[in-house]
Amino acid sequence: MSVLNPAATDAASPTFSNLGLAEPILRAIADAGYTTPTPIQAQAIPQVIAGGDLLAAAQTGTGKTAGFTLPVLHMLQGHKPANQRAGAPRCLVLTPTRELAAQVEESVQTYGKYLPLKSLVIFGGVGINPQIDALRRKVDILVATPGRLLDHAGQKTVDLSAVEILVLDEADRMLDMGFIHDIRKVLALLPAKRQNLLFSATFSDEIRALADRLLDNPRCIEVARRNTASEMVTQAVHRVAQPHKREALSHLIKTHEWPQVLVFTRTKHGANKLAEYLEKNGIGAAAIHGNKSQSARTKALSQFKDGSLPVLVATDIAARGLDIDELPQVVNFELPNVPEDYVHRIGRTGRAGASGAAVSLVDDEEVKLLRGIEKLIKRKIEELPLPGFVPTAKPAAGDPINDRPPRNHAPRGNRPPRQAGQSAGGRQPEQRPAGPKGGNPNPPRKPNQPGKPHGRPAQGATATDPRPAHRLKQPPAAALLGGSSRHKPS
């Protein structure tokens, strides 16, 4: 695996016109308003065009998608197979999420609008029949999530035997989401001779292991050191108790008049509750997560992108791949359990050279998570006060503001010992109040009283003791089994 020197390309300061791209693609790039490639684009595009496998890593928001869509379009437009079959794509792009798949296909259409190439995106959560109809026609570039692609393969509605180029986008996220088995199934359906491109936000040990199995003597591009946050993002922390976080977020949005803010929660239920709270307080908001229908997710994301929806509340499903032009603000309503997810969350802002800001609301129980994040990104995040914020809200009964506390990732042997009488969840058992004047807190039940029947006495009960026979004083089990006993028979 050969590693390219980022400084060599940066020094040349290339433009798109000298990267070897075809004229129709350059025209589409100009229409989109871009003139200078990002470092990952400047290094990856020539390498992909030159042929051979590639392993590329760069921070989120640095233009990795165009880093492979542009050269793929260039290579496919250069030659057309003589007998291309319907439903047999020449390039397959695998992505971990539906939103990212739709975004990649949108990028293909944007940069390939002057080319006679056909693209298609398929993912779950929507009807499969329209996708089957589309696959009855010729497709050059197919963008797909692994699960839905295997559904089509099982129904023989897609033919992967003609794939020339395979792209794994956000490969580290696919591994995080447990797609490795699906990826292996897809690889078994592909021709052995093909070009493989693996793009990732990180170069974890798992990614390198996947690259060793998948790639053949690849070139390696790493634009930034592992797990670094963009320098274009200003980061800050506000210490807020969990019950007051929703009120604090509403205060921040109104005080700073944020026109567009992406908020991350730890759970789907928490995302729904927060969006409902903001709506009730006059702030337009919608939640997006895995339990939402695809139509609801698409609608919310579309409204957020066009500016008609000021707040989008999301779980980490949106932490990868969402490309929102000049998104100014990200808020971590709760810190993620995995420090790397923090980097991908705040990477939704400060993209393509623009500046951005990320604010985290941190409860006392999340301080350990905060320290883990600071250790990962190798910097201290500034803690700032919340001027003008006076919490007044009290959680309503049955309103689980903190619906899931941070997980304890410590090995079980290193956790503090459970206190006597403490339950597994860390709670003390409920104590019944003492009886009158300090008497027995568990007084015996009163027998049935005349005029106040409580049902028929159980079999074996007496007039003075309504308890059934099996509840009356019995010999201990040891005595019944022939062992010693303190019980003295009457």
TrEMBL record:
GO terms for molecular function: helicase activity. It is found in: Cytoplasm. Residues 388-490 are annotated as: Disordered. The keyword Nucleotide-binding applies. It comes from the Bacteria. It catalyses: ATP + H2O = ADP + phosphate + H(+). PROSITE patterns: DEAD_ATP_HELICASE, HELICASE_ATP_BIND_1, HELICASE_CTER, Q_MOTIF. Residues 248-392 form the Helicase C-terminal domain. Keywords: ATP-binding, Cytoplasm, Helicase, Hydrolase, Nucleotide-binding, Ribosome biogenesis. The keyword Ion transport does not apply. A motif (Q motif) lies at residues 14-42. SMART domains: DEXDc (SM00487), HELICc (SM00490). Residues 45-221 form the Helicase ATP-binding domain. It is an enzyme of class 3 (hydrolase). InterPro entries: DEAD/DEAH_box_helicase_dom (IPR011545), DEAD/DEAH_RhlB (IPR044742), DEAD_box_RNA_helicase (IPR050079), DEAD_helicase_RhlE (IPR028622), Helicase_ATP-bd (IPR014001), Helicase_C-like (IPR001650), P-loop_NTPase (IPR027417), RNA-helicase_DEAD-box_CS (IPR000629). Its EC number is 3.6.4.13. Residues 14-42 form the DEAD-box RNA helicase Q domain. Belongs to the DEAD box helicase family. RhlE subfamily. DEAD-box RNA helicase involved in ribosome assembly. Has RNA-dependent ATPase activity and unwinds double-stranded RNA. This is ATP-dependent RNA helicase RhlE. The gene is rhlE.
